[in-house]
Write a structure and sequence with these properties.
This protein is α/β, with parallel strands linked by helices and about 200 residues long. It has helices at about 10-25, 50-70, 95, 100-115, 125-130, 155-180; strands at about 25-30, 40, 45, 75-80, 120-125, 140, 145, 200. Strands 5-4-1-8 form a 4-stranded parallel beta sheet, with helices on both faces. Strands 2-3 form a two-stranded antiparallel sheet. A two-stranded antiparallel sheet has the order 6-7. The radius of gyration is 18 Å and the shape is globular.
């Protein structure tokens, strides 16, 4: 979402369009964030998180994202919000925004959006890595997961990326199987010889 309270989001649509035009990727990863769980203001109109108006604004923004990211036919993978464990205090009220109930609600909405978008969009549940048993996992493969309960620790970053790429490989294989060409169809970009060489992680 680009809104008046977060200037650093200005230019998002243009920068995403530029990166897609430059790389013309097969898969784009669109990551949801706890920033999607804040009250927002768009063109002077306030939207309170959790209201019907808020969900409508969020869905419209995501639909715009899909139009941008799929300009050259990319398959979009929407990745959900991971589990967090933030206990600090700050002006952004992070402890509320990353609470389990709120992130679960946001993920539920995101998953439905991905499903309703059709076969060209997939859902990636980051909770499979960060709370496998429904409880926050403080480590991943023995490394500290988050440095502050929200941002990935340096040691965890390559492990998380490897896990994500592995899931993207699984999605690409599934696409290749479901879109196996017939005599009258062109070959899928995800044939058995295809390998993921570049990952665009937007969001």
């Amino acid at each position: 979402l680009s809104d008046g309270s977060r200037e650093w989001c200005d230019g998002r649509a243009a920068s995403w369009a530029d990166s897609v035009t430059t790389t013309q990727p097969d898969i784009v990863l669109m990551g949801l964030s706890h920033w999607d769980a804040y009250d927002i203001e768009i063109d002077g109109t306030a939207f309170e998180y959790g209201t019907a108006e808020y969900w409508g604004a969020l869905q419209s923004s995501w639909e715009e994202n899909l139009r941008i990211l799929q300009e050259y036919g990319a398959h979009v993978v929407v990745s959900g919000v991971p589990c967090f464990s933030y206990t600090g205090t700050d002006d952004f009220d992070l402890s509320t925004r990353v609470a389990p109930g709120r992130t679960a609600e946001l993920n539920s909405f995101g998953q439905k959006f991905a499903i309703d978008a059709g076969p060209s969009v997939s859902w990636l549940d980051m909770r499979e890595l960060t709370c496998t048993e429904g409880l926050y996992e403080p480590t991943v493969q023995g490394a500290e997961l988050h440095r502050d309960g929200v941002h990935y620790a340096d040691e965890a970053k390559p492990l998380v990326l490897d896990w994500v790429i592995s899931r993207l490989d699984d999605i690409a294989s599934t696409i290749a199987e479901t879109e196996a060409p017939t005599q009258t169809q062109e070959s899928s970009p995800f044939d058995q010889s295809h390998a993921i060489t570049t990952v665009l992680w937007h969001g």
